[in-house]
Amino acid sequence: MTQLSMRQFIERSAQQPLRIHVADGATYKLSHPDFAFVTEGSLILASGPGHELGVEFIVCPLAQIARIEVAKTKAKPV
Asked: Bigger pLDDT: 25 or 49?
């Protein structure tokens, strides 16, 4: 995963929440781009509404990100 492609995914998370899967099997939900920061070799996810991490932040090396998908959200009652 490149820095540029990660930034493009993050920009899209404002419209659709993302689920980030890393090589060790962990997954993280990103519901807004304000809680993600892309550096030269890492993705930093900060804890926030809709994606509490259990810690203040997580650092994921870009090379360890296995895949990114649109996170399924619960349907709102009508």
From this structure: 25
